[in-house]
Structures are given as structure tokens and as C-alpha cells.
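Can anyone check this?
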Amino acid sequence: MKVQNKWIRAAIPALLLHCSIGTVYCWSIFSEEIGKYIGFSKGATEWAFSFAIFFLGMSAAFLGNIVEKDIHRSSLIAAICFASGMAGTGFFIWYGGKQYVATGHGSVLALIGIYICYGFIMGIGLGTGYLSPVKTLMLWFEDRKGLATGLAVAGFGAAKAIASPIMQALLDSLGKNGIWQMFLILAGVYFVMMFVGHLLLAKPAGWHEPAKQEKGQKAIDVIKTKPVVFIGIWIMFYLNITCGLALISQEKMIIKCIGLGAMAGVLSSVTAVFNAGGRLGFSAWADTMKDRNTIYKIIFILSIAATGIVIVTQAITKQGSSITAGGTGSMFLTILVLILLFVVNAGYGGGFSNVPTLLSDHYGMGNISAIHGITLSAWAIAGLTGNQVATLIVNKVGSWSNIMVDGHEYNINPTGYQSVLYLTIVLYVISLLVSFFMVSGHKKKQA
């Protein structure tokens, strides 16, 4: 007799899948060490993460129909691709380190191998793994769709905060060659977690796909019934991710810039909690609203307000100048910058968790996995633009100066970090206008 329980069949497997694939964000913690081990710069190895996010979105867009038809096949594909990609990454780190020691030069083959394994193969696992439990959760938790999807997506957001200290401890215990051994060990651990999730995941016994889908109606045909709404949701999703990545990519340096460098690690964990909390909190809150799009208006208004205050007060620039000159700066300005980081992280997470439920309200549940997958193409493109645009602004605007944090010297560019906000506030305003004029005015729709 099959177990029919929403926690065992939906919530737990969703967390097992999302808490595993969410560790893709841990790459930034080890990218510099990996670069040194194989003889390449941190910038070269960071492209592996950008490729992973790109192929996450692209695989979700193109494989959404597979998820729609068979969540067991898609969740198994996710487990195999994610684990094998991680194991392959470990192999090419080992190979690259071996070649670097032997020749004194970085191996291009090793770097390309890492791009393929971490970027392409793991990316497929990310896309299918991200999508697989979402529709199932919404079917089991029909009255609290936002809470259910928020719980799973919060697992994806919190994975970095949970896994990072564990990975660091594992790395320290493994010693000199621990960096590649860690990937091999984790490949096995995450495969087991995702495979268990794959075995448990199941739709409710009484669910039958709508007749239109059985007759072969495609997701793109459903989208065409409300094309302006879909375009609006896609734009909102893309711009919110771009703004989030633009600021989050500079987060650690901004924290050092305002004089809290000694707390950078702790504050990064705190912002990760806000990221995960936003995924759960905003989506659960949206369940209580007649129009779920209202939550996006709230997210954008809060983001505009927090960004605008830091722009008007020039908080980052003034704090950075004071710290560079040897002062301590203003506690008030420091608090304003921290509020900005917390609000943007929460809104960034909330933007993710509300997309599938907002789509289901407009298009029903019939093709939701495929439609959600197409929408995730926005994540793919934002993954290639958000970080890079912010880095370009920081490198081109302002001037660099040196500060000492815990005996280490760092280069900071307060004006550059401040200038990133001029871009993000414009994008947030555009997002708010889109939410009012392209997406608003539609009540929740049932399957």
C-alpha cells in the first residue's frame, strides 16, 4: 500500500532535492582556492558557477515538458546529473592540480572539464531538480501553495548557509588534496539524498491532468492565452534576479567597506537567512492575498525605499571614505546599508518562491511545470548579466583605496559600490511599473 501523506510525498522529498542542488552557491566560497590548486585565477574558475546557473535556466526551459509528464524520470535525471557533475568536477580538479604541479602551468583541459561538469552536467541536474517537486507541492498543499513552494525554495536558498561550514570542516580535515576529495565525497552524499527524494516524490492519488493537456496542448499555447501577463512576469523575475545578484555579488566587499570586515562571515550567513526567510515568508504571505501579484509590488516598493535611502544619504561612499581615513564612521549609516542588504536578499528570495504560484493563478495547474521552466530562462540570462554588470560598474566608476581588516589588506571602491545602486533602483522602478500595468488585476485561478 502506497503511503499518501503530503509531508512524506511532497515536502520532505522537495527539501531533499532543493537542499542538495542549492549547494551550487557554495562554489564562490572555494573558487579562489580551486583556482590556486589548478593554476588559474579566481575569475576564470568563477565562470563555472555562471555556466551552472545559465544551464539551470535553460534546462528548465527545455526539459519542463519531461517534468510535466513524469516527475520520477525528471527527479532521477536530476540526481544522476547533479551527482555525476559534482564527481566529474572533483576529477578535473585532481587532474588540473596534478598537471599544474608537473608543468607549472594551468591545464586548459582541466578548466574546460570543470566548466562542462559543474556548468553543463550539474546545470541539467539543477534545472530538472528545481522543477520536479514544485507542481507536486502545489497539488498536495492546494490551500497553501505559497507556503509549500516557499518551504522548498527556502531550502534551496538556505543550502549555502547550511552546507558551507560543513564543507569547510570537511576540507580542513582532508588536508592538502582535500579540495578534490571533498567533491567526490559530496557527490555520493548528495546522490543518496536526491535519490531518496526521487523515491518518495509522488503526486496525489486523486490528481488527473486536465483534458486539454491530455489532448496535447502545449505550454506555449497556454501562455498565448495571456501573452502580456507572461511577458510581464518574465520581466519582473529577470529584473529582480539581476538586481539581487548585482548587490549580492558585491556584498562582502560592501560589508568590509562600511567597517564590518571582521563580521563579514557572520553577516553573510545572516543575509542568507533573510534570503531563505524571504522565500518562505513572502510566499506564505501571498497565500492570504486575493491577487498574488500584490506581493511583488510590496517587494519592489521595499527594495526601492531601502535603495533610495542609501542613495540619498550616500551611506556606502561616506562610510567607505571614513573607514579608509582611519575613522569608524556613522553607526546610523552602517545600519542603513545593512537594512538594504537584508531587504534586497529577502526580496530576491521572495521573487523566486512566488513565481510558480503566480503562474498557476493565471494559467492553472495543467502545464505549470513546463510554463515555470520557460520562465526560469530569465534566471539563466540574469545569471550571466547581474554579477558582470555590477563588476563592470565597480571597475569603471570611482577609485580604489586600501583598508586593513584583521591584519589583511583589502582594496575597496566605495563610490563604485554606491554607483551600482543607481542601476538597481532604476530596474526596481521598471519592475514595479510592470507589476502594475502588465501583471496586475487578475485574481487567483484554480486548476
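Reply from J.R.: I decoded it. Residues 216-447 form a domain with the Growth Hormone; Chain: A; fold (CATH 1.20.1250.20).
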